[in-house]
Amino acid sequence: MDILESMKKRAQENLRRIVLPEGDEPRTLEAANIILKESVADIILIGDSNTIAQMASEKNLEYIAKAHIVDPKTNEKMPEYANLLYELRKAKGMTKEEALLKVQDPLYLGCLMIKNGDADGELAGARGTTADTIRPAFQILKTKPGISVVSGAFLMFTKAQEYGENGFLLFADCAVNPCPTAEELAQIAVSTAQTAKSLGGVEPRVAMLSFSTQGSAKHPLVDKVIEATSIARSLAPDVLIDGELQLDAAIVGKVAQLKAPNSPVAGKANVLVFPDLQAGNIGYKLVERFSGADAVGPILQGIAKPVNDLSRGCKVQDIVQMIIITANQAID
């Protein structure tokens, strides 16, 4: 977990403004207090200021006093945010009246604050779905240049030191896209490679996973992974990307020697790109539960500015870690 400690130190040295739209959610408030106490980020809480103050007092969260609280009912910049939303969405049919109503939604307001330059990143999802978090980000912040798909990666800290980078790997997409096309799968690979480099501090070696290794099986699903691999290589020619590879061929050296002896990735992959959401979601949870690995994420990739999602079953420490990650994304 030294990677997370390094990210924490980097965030402390480069303070960023992270907005938490669920400002009156108990776990979120506790996490914000820890972040403020340790000076990891400047925190913006969206919610009723009286409710937040009362909750902080009842829980003895003294550092919440350092947070900037944005109350949608009273904030003087609400008309400005509403007008920004109208200008962004009028071509899609949004009226000024609809914008005035929509801006009261904390998830829309958080993204508008980022778009307006009043915040650097956002973290939400303790009370809502992934779709709820992504929708306003996609509409307001859009995607990065050259990327059209938003995806979710997990930082996997395992006890199996022989795999990845001393047990550290990235898994994607485990959160967003049910059945990506070859083009989308290629973009997910490129985005995850960038995450490995910028957050994990490792040189990515990307395995495009399948139930086939270099032609051992024939099926349209295998063809999709082969096509995705070709596209990903063209999008990021300086990144080591190979596929299609079975999981054992991707990470086990002896198996790689038998199944893919000429692969620059096989046997030493540190980024695993799953062919669809079912495989990715099941895969990371199997590793987490059976091996006791720490799965940190999902880290949303592809959005123009940092916006991250939480599981509704998240713990306070999960939120703290994701604020640290969001702050690091905002530094790059």
Search tags:
alpha/beta; Rossmann fold; 2 domains; 16% strand
Secondary-structure map with pairings?
Elements: H1 2-13, E1 17-20, H2 26-37, E2 42-46, H3 49-58, E3 68-70, H4 78-89, H5 96-102, H6 106-115, E4 121-124, H7 130-140, E5 151-157, E6 168-172, H8 182-198, E7 205-209, H9 220-235, E8 240-245, H10 247-251, H11 253-259, E9 271-273, H12 277-291, E10 294-301, E11 307-309, H13 316-331
Parallel strand pairs: 1-2, 1-4, 2-3, 4-11, 6-9, 7-8, 7-9
Antiparallel strand pairs: 5-6, 5-10
Helix pairs in contact: 1-13, 2-13, 4-5, 6-7, 8-9
Can you characterise this structure?
It is globular, with a radius of gyration of 21 Å. It folds into two domains: 2-142 and 303-331, Rossmann fold; 151-294, Rossmann fold (3-Layer(aba) Sandwich). Helix 1 (2-13) packs across helix 13. The strands form two sheets. A six-stranded mixed beta sheet has the order 8-7-9-6-5-10, sandwiched between helices. The protein has a five-stranded parallel beta sheet with strand order 3-2-1-4-11, with helices on both faces. The two termini are 21 Å apart. Helix 2 (26-37) links the parallel strand 1 and strand 2. Helices cover 45% and strands 16% of the residues. It has helices at residues 2-13, 26-37, 49-58, 78-89, 96-102, 106-115, 130-140, 182-198, 220-235, 247-251, 253-259, 277-291, 316-331; strands at residues 17-20, 42-46, 68-70, 121-124, 151-157, 168-172, 205-209, 240-245, 271-273, 294-301, 307-309. The chain is α/β, with parallel strands linked by helices and 332 residues long. It has 13 helices and eleven strands.
